[in-house]
């Protein structure tokens, strides 16, 4: 058993070696006979020359070589045949044998293959001698070659025929040109040779054992250029003008291509046609050419070929603008569009990726040839939707990639998303993408907007835009959030936030609509997204508020819908949404921003409401002490700038603020918050509040707290670090002193300076260089002011800085 | 040496020469010993004339009972060797009995000799024409000398010459239709035709056209038939598919063909056939044989 199986394995291994050997034998045979042939040629012995050349050509009768090896052998013989041809020409010129006799003589050879090679060779001489019209000789040759039905040998023989006849076609302007009709004969000859070669080439696939089918496919692929060469020859014939191409050449070629029913041949030949004939011809014969595509075998990779055609034509269109009218004239788009439709219909098994690729090509074509025809673009997308309809979202990654390409193409071309938004089918195509890709696509769209700083200015468009990028705006059904990369998510949401700023319209009313639309969409975003998107929306809205405020007089009327009030309502809702996140710090900041804006718009109740919300957040949501500190300082800062509040409201707010400040956890923080509160009672505005009493009260309270802090520190740690606080308070004192608050006198300041000195010198205080520096620079400031003189300088005169 | 050889040599040299030997066309024929010699060509109803020259070996004289020359048309069947059937026999007396001392020439003439059959040298049969000179002698054997000549008769272009067209096949296996442009060919003709494949279910390797000669001799139960393939001409290489048509163009010149002979003197017939052979990959041969009539067409118009 083992031995048997080993023997079986040996066989295929031996194949290649055997082939080498057969090739070597073949070459040796060719060389040997060529040697005798040469000798016969040298001695002008026609009979021997024919004999040995026939024997030499008999080596080509082998069936044992693969196409590759056979080609090698063929080339050897080919070289020798050139010498023989020269001999024949000499022989006929000398008159020792007429070419007609020679033409008969070579046909005495008993074996058909050598006979036909010789016949072709003499035929070439015959044409050159012009003793008979080229067309008759060619016709005879191409007919006689039917004797070789073996695909490989037939292909090579006919390729030989094609080779030797190339320069002898009765083409227009050629020396072999006959009457007016002779161009037809030239074309007819090449076409016939082509058709026969293609038949042989196709037949190759169906002969031999089934298990070698794949191998045969590969071998055939190596031979394809022999067949394609004929098309190249056709394209080189001068006499093949557009009319001829349209009436004869193309229909005949296509007929053969379609009828051969072989996928390899169809793919290659269609590609060949597209490559070898000029673009202009394709354009003018588009209908004929395209009509062939739906008739091709279902397994033919039509998309590649058709894409190539569209690419070529779009390049052609791009190369010179003057050809564009031709495209319009022949309705290139409509023809492509319907052809693609038919192809897809004709090939129900075509994978989605194929169909989509076709649409991508068509779209590229459209964008390049008809950039102004947006309806075409939409039509393409619509067709794509139709193809995809009834299917679930795409799973195939390649198809997805193609869809992304499909969708990106208009963006790149128009560099303006607004155009894309007019494409009603655009979002429908996107629906077929999976979630991850939808997001990628959305990011692409946003990036395109950013890159081109496109401003989108109507709510309708924004509606559709958000529809497009909904993958980023909200959670998609069945989306797997756990796979989400945090970084990516941030990146995405940041881009959405940036996008919001690109939505703008100078007309407040429209802008308001925009805001509403945006709000509507982003509120669907869920807690994770809101923190990114809400601030953008808020600031975008505030920008509008400011603008309205700028044109105050005209727009505050009740009947104008875009009032700040309305905007504030929106803002309120929006920020409220953050509570579900929850992101109290952010919401607090935004509330304060809004309050400030409301302040500028003289909307006291609104501002008050915002403050209330801020306070509620502070009380209920902000628990972290550090966050509290930040928040309280923000509140103080904002409140300080508010000037619309009535006394009562203001009191409530300041009172609350001061209260919160004093309730901070750490003493130093308390201290700092409290002294910051002092600003709430003294504003520089004209009609602002100026309550010196309460300023002093705050500062004193701060001092007390500082004191307590110091004591606490010395009690717990045995050292005190809180001199800094005193110095800070001193600075506050100085500030208000300069402001001229009557309650702050130089005595109070003097006392404080003394107090600090004492504290510094107390036993348990640690010398801290920064504190030291702070204090001394504060004192230096006092000295400086003294020296500067003026009214402030005078006030400072009383204060002694040195002990 | 010469002396010894001379002892067995006939006592005289006889040479037969044709009067138009220089201008007459000659053809080469194969002799019994395998050598080829050139012989003059005549056709029926020509006058055959010339002279016989008898030159005795010097110093000898020949006593004879008369000298005659015969023109013989003979058919020789090999299985019956030695027996000649003379279908033509003409005699001319050249000399009355007497003696020849020195070279003597006798003119002869057979005018408008009827020679209905062509010379033929086949496998089992030979048809030949000879001139035979006999010097009759008493007691010792006659002195005989032969001179071969060749007869070729030309036919006019046949008035009816139909093409051969036929559809043949093996059911569900192979159906072909072949057509040869003519049924009668002259010896330097070309066979033009085509083979059209109607159905191909076998793996054909190649196709060839054979020219076969069928020579039948004797008659009745003694008929011998010899078939000889004179030409094998490959028409097609590889396996065709349905609908292919393969051209045939076979030049007959290179093959040594004769006209068709039908029942020559009730002794023999020579017929020609075209045999179309298809060989499949297992080397099985499928063939169809068709008789063609060969005729000799006058190569150049007769000088009048």
From TrEMBL, chain A:
TM stretches of this protein: none
Keyword check for Membrane: yes
Signal peptide: none
Its membrane topology: Peripheral membrane protein
Keyword Isomerase set for record: no
Principal subcellular localisation of the protein: cytoplasm
Keywords from the UniProt entry: Cytoplasm, Endosome, Golgi apparatus, Membrane, Protein transport, Transport
Source species: Sorghum bicolor
Pfam families in the record: Vps35
Reported function: Plays a role in vesicular protein sorting.
Organism phylogeny: Eukaryota, Viridiplantae, Streptophyta, Embryophyta, Tracheophyta
GO cellular component, as recorded: cytosol; endosome membrane; Golgi apparatus; late endosome; retromer complex; retromer, cargo-selective complex
GO biological process, one term: intracellular protein transport
Subcellular location: Cytoplasm; Endosome membrane; Golgi apparatus, trans-Golgi network membrane; Prevacuolar compartment membrane
SUPFAM superfamilies: ARM repeat (SSF48371)
Family to which this protein belongs: Belongs to the VPS35 family.
Name of the protein described by the UniProt record: Vacuolar protein sorting-associated protein 35
From TrEMBL, chain B:
Broad class of the protein's primary localization: cytoplasm
Membrane topology of this protein: Peripheral membrane protein
Pfam families: Vps26
Claim: Hydrolase is one of the keywords in the record: no
Cellular compartments annotated: Cytoplasm; Endosome membrane; Golgi apparatus, trans-Golgi network membrane; Prevacuolar compartment membrane
Main function: Plays a role in vesicular protein sorting. Component of the membrane-associated retromer complex which is essential in endosome-to-Golgi retrograde transport. The VPS29-VPS26-VPS35 subcomplex may be involved in recycling of specific cargos from endosome to the plasma membrane.
Protein name: Uncharacterized protein
